[in-house]
Amino acid sequence: LQIADAALAQGESEAALTAYRALRARSEAWLVASPDSDDALKALALHRGRIADVLEDRGELEAALAEHQASLALAERRAQLAPSPDADKSMLIALGHVGELLAEVRRDGPAALVAYRRGLAIGERNLARDPRDPRWLTDVAISHDEIGKLLLDDGDPAAALVEFHAARAAI
């Protein structure tokens, strides 16, 4: 992972992509060998997310969306097999990426809104368990903000304002 990250930090996106894809292949093999392994699911979701980030930076947005959606599916599986705040956080992050790309690439505001609202529900559920956790407070605020932006773009400034106020109240 460090080799891929270092290549990316040096602006070598092709080398980083190659390294992340090799890691993805290893994680896929690990998951085949241990289909219920939380660690294997987490590793594969991470590698797919990193691949998506590189693809997004390179402007390969449909491919990035597909990788983020695959990462989301893995995070959802983790949350089903072994519910935890860590699995929820992975799911919330993936939903944010999926929502962003659905809105920007596919111009599918309704689908993006569903993704952001699912993320918001995850954040609020975890915030209810630990109301002082700044990570969940931030996630809830970001989710409200993203929902507000979509609603504003969709021509619903009143609903957007409610979301913007909720975002501000969260932090």
Detailed description of the structure:
By secondary structure, this protein is an all-alpha fold. It contains 8 helices and no strands. It is globular and about 50 Å long.
Q: Report the β-strand fraction as a percent range.
A: under 5%
Q: What order do the SSEs take from the amino end to the carboxyl end, as H and E?
A: HHHHHHHH
Specify the structural class.
Answer: mainly alpha
Number of strands: 0
Which term fits the overall shape?
globular
Could you give a short account of the major beta sheet? none
- What is the C-alpha radius of gyration, as a whole number of Å? 17 Å
Runs in which pLDDT lies below 50 for 5 or more consecutive residues are none
Residues in helices, as a percent range: over 70%
Mean pLDDT: 95
Distance between the termini: 33 Å
Q: Name the assembly state.
A: single chain
Q: Helical element count?
A: 8
Task: Write a compact overview of the structure shown.
The protein has helices at residues 2-9, 13-33, 38-57, 61-81, 85-104, 109-129, 134-153, 157-170. It is mainly α and 171 residues long.
